[in-house]
Amino acid sequence: MITISLCMIVKNEEGTIERCLESVKGIVDEIIIVDTGSTDRTKEIVAQYTDHVVDFCWVDDFAAARNFAFSHAKMDYIFWLDADDVLMEEDRKKFLELKETLNPATDSVTMHYYLAFDEKGNVTTSLRRNRLVKKNNNFKWYGEVHEYLEVWGKILHSEIAVTHCSIHHDSDRNLRIYENRLKRGEQFSARDLFYFANELFDHQKIERAIIFYKQFLATKNGWIEDYISACGKLSDCFNTLGDHQSELQYILKSFEYDSPRADFCCRLGFRFLQQNQPRKALVWYKLATELEKPADNLGMINHACWTWLPHLQLCVCYSQLENYELAYKHNEIARQYLPDHPSILHNKRFLEPLLK
């Protein structure tokens, strides 16, 4: 059976760190906490779980801090979390099973990362990350902000999920780091351009976000998933500005990088519905229902577009075309995913008398 080191970087996490460490108790064989300047009870809480706490002088570089944490690991594999991440009970069981059965030739194990949920607790947004990596490979982190772990070799895509349960964070921190780097005249990598644009977008600096998203796309040496995401963000930017021609341009541009994704099909369908063209809209919503959700894609997944949403919208399309039988059929498919959704229940009440 393999052994596992948990490596974390923390600062002022008294509200979340206990929950996180409690969720991995009995799974990992050592816990290494790198503290970057806590002034609250973080270290006091951590001391209940490990005595391996190391201070690190913060230098606005997340990769440097994570590499420092990894350098202290002694076990066969390294597992990493943020303080506001947890393993739910079902995922604890899956992790323990993985620990007992993992082929030691495996270089990295990816896990789902659940980022957002609906009111019923269903996952709405997720991605995959390399979470458990072989120590002897000396994999390194790169990037001062939105750092990534570069891995290679034999990779196992597991069904274990890490759940993000954020309570608080400094929402301006990453933007400040990027702005300071820009002022120093640093050359941004393609990845820097993408994530800086994301920070600008999140802070509603739409015009500047557009500039940096376009610069990122022009590099032609980024990750495909980031290119596709940037197309979605640009279409959102132009929608906000009321420039619907440019919005359409970047929806379609996403098809240059890969076969159509369900979320972009839904974007096109919505545009045609807004233009009162349900026949054109249903073509794209129908395509979204026929696509297979990627199982091992590391990019962001909007689960609604791969499950219930296109069926709900097909109900709208067919209703406008007065094909109530097909409208009802797709509404029922949507209801299998979300039995209590108000719009789905409204459609059901509306359509049933018409069918009778």
From TrEMBL:
Keywords: Transferase
Gene3D superfamilies named among the record's database cross-references: Spore Coat Polysaccharide Biosynthesis Protein SpsA, Chain A, Tetratricopeptide repeat domain
GO molecular function, one term: transferase activity
Cross-referenced InterPro entries: Glyco_trans_2-like (IPR001173), Nucleotide-diphossugar_trans (IPR029044), TPR-like_helical_dom_sf (IPR011990)
Pfam families according to UniProt: Glycos_transf_2
Entry annotated with the keyword Transport: no
The keyword Manganese is annotated on this UniProt entry: no
Superkingdom as given in the UniProt entry: Bacteria
Residues of the Glycosyltransferase 2-like domain: 5-146
Protein name according to UniProt: Glycosyltransferase involved in cell wall biosynthesis
Organism name: Mesobacillus foraminis
